[in-house]
Amino acid sequence: MTLFSDEEKDILQEVMNIAFGNATADLAEVIDIFVVLTVPQIQVMKISELPTYFEKNIHGFERIWKLDQEFWGDFSGSGFLIFPEQIGKSLVELFGTGDLDPTENNPFDSLEKEILLEVGNILVGACVGKIAELLDTRVTYSPPIASQGECSNFARLVENYDSDQTAIIMKTVFEFENHNISGLLFFITSQDSIEWLKKSLYDYLESFDE
Amino acid sequence: MIKKILIVDDSPIARKIMKTCLPKDRGYEISEATNGQEGIDKYLSVKPDLTFMDLTMPKLDGYKATEEIKKIDKNAMIVAATADIQPKSLERIMALGAFTVLKKPPRKSSLEEILDKVEKQLTEK
Q1: B14 touches chain A (CB under 8 A)
Q2: Which fold has domain B4-124?
Q3: Distances (CA, A) of A158 to A49, A68, A104, B75
Q4: Average per-residue pLDDT for chain A
Q5: Domain boundaries, chain B
Q6: What is the least distance, in Å, from the CA of B20 to any CA of chain A?
Q7: Is A164 a member of any domain?
Q8: DSSP class of residue B93?
Q9: Does A1 fall in a domain?
Q10: Hey, is the C-beta of A41 within 8 angstroms of any chain B C-beta?
Q11: Are B13 and A38 a contacting pair at CB < 8 A?
């Protein structure tokens, strides 16, 4: 799919790189964790192609946690984080249970979910926020939603989207150092945002000439 | 005095932005490399006065490239140009011998400040 030129993809990749770098720094302020970053990859595809893409890119996980958060504005879409299911327990250990008693009113599963929602909110929210800042716009967010499921059923991840809609996959794989945790972050950008996004990417590049 | 600058970054856009932000009136000779290994090779062939080093790169990352260059030339002047602004990343690259860190995206003012600091450091040597 040649919706974006190579140069547009390169600009998007650099914007994504900066945004995710900022997001991980925000996460490091909340928990004592170091995120090992990898080079982000940009791909454009139809929503209908996503389940196959996930199967190829998310391997080694049997069950997953999926967090998604919608955002609106000139730049609209959804941000997704996918983690292996066992991340929940590791994150609870990292965060600590604080004042919460996992044995009474806050069962461990609920605590896991709350912590994952917070991590997702920071990573997706900070990342989208930085993209919006760099592209000189602002976005509003819905609260993040966390759900668990079988890794084999990727079609369910995108069942609410029009299969002909375009997905811009801005994928970055990351690892939490010393904790054997890795995950995948990606965005599906709404069709309505694409023309705005293309123009804004060039405006961003030109802003350095000023 | 800074004459030769090497920009090591896998992103062509990041390299373009860096070149755009460098002052045009100082006559810098600019070389580029697209990953850490190429950065080491270019360092050896170009012998730059200043190297801007991205940290997250394919093949060889900026940490390892900085470490290798500092082994070859302990006086190498390397500025980490990175979007990874986690405190531990910054501590790590500084411990490996980077002179300072330039947060991405660079701004002309912050870049000029760094260039002045590097000039001062080179003059004092």
Answers
A1: yes
A2: Rossmann fold (3.40.50)
A3: 10, 11, 35, 53
A4: 83
A5: 4-124
A6: 6
A7: yes
A8: H
A9: no
A10: no
A11: no
